[in-house]
Amino acid sequence: MTAGQSDLTVRRGQISIDRFTCLGTACVVVGGLVAAVARPLDLTKGSWLAAYLVLVCGVALAVIGAAQQHTREPVPPGVQHLQLTGWVVANGLVIGGSLAELPYVVDAGSLILFTVLALTAWAGRSLARDFPLAGGAYLATIFVLASSIPVGIVLAHR
């Protein structure tokens, strides 16, 4: 096993379940549960929270994890740790700041998320060349997320 691989076996042409995919899937499930209870519990920001958990915290992270399994050289464990830690902290701050209506907390989370996205783009830089479809999805995911950050900041300050 090389340094960048997870504990599970990775074979050419297959996608293993790594920490990115596990955490992303868990966020999708939690987002679905939030969506199920948002209306009955009259949660003011329930639909936003459900969408954020599913799309940003969940699906995007799973796409990133799946794509990074196909980089020319494995993403070093230290970089993976920074990505995941930054992802959790950034999204925790964005969610907490949004729910508590503390826009500067959202700003801090957004800045961390943008930094993590830049690191993530760097970590998968060989994908576009080696696997155009996977690399395109990877870069598109990062671009969409990065582009949505200023919108989220503006909305948090309204």
Topology record:
Elements: H1 19-38, H2 46-68, H3 77-99, H4 103-123, H5 127-130, H6 132-156
Helix pairs in contact: 1-2, 2-3, 2-6, 3-4, 4-6
How would you portray this structure in words?
This protein has 158 residues and is mostly helical. 73% of the residues lie in helices and 0% in strands. The chain is built from 6 helices and no strands. Helix 3 (77-99) runs antiparallel to helix 4. The longest helix has 25 residues, at 132-156. It is globular.
Main pleated-sheet profile: none
**How far apart are the first and last residues' alpha carbons, in Å?**
49 Å
Give the overall form: globular
Q: Which structural class do you get from the secondary structure elements?
A: mainly alpha
Question: Which range best describes the helical content: under 10%, 10-25%, 25-40%, 40-55%, 55-70% or over 70%?
Answer: over 70%
Number of strands: 0
Number of domains: 1
Uncertain stretches of 5 or more adjacent residues: 1-10
β-strand percent reads: under 5%
Number of helices: 6
Question: What brief labels describe this structure?
Answer:
globular, mainly alpha, 6 helices, 158 residues, disordered N terminus, 73% helix
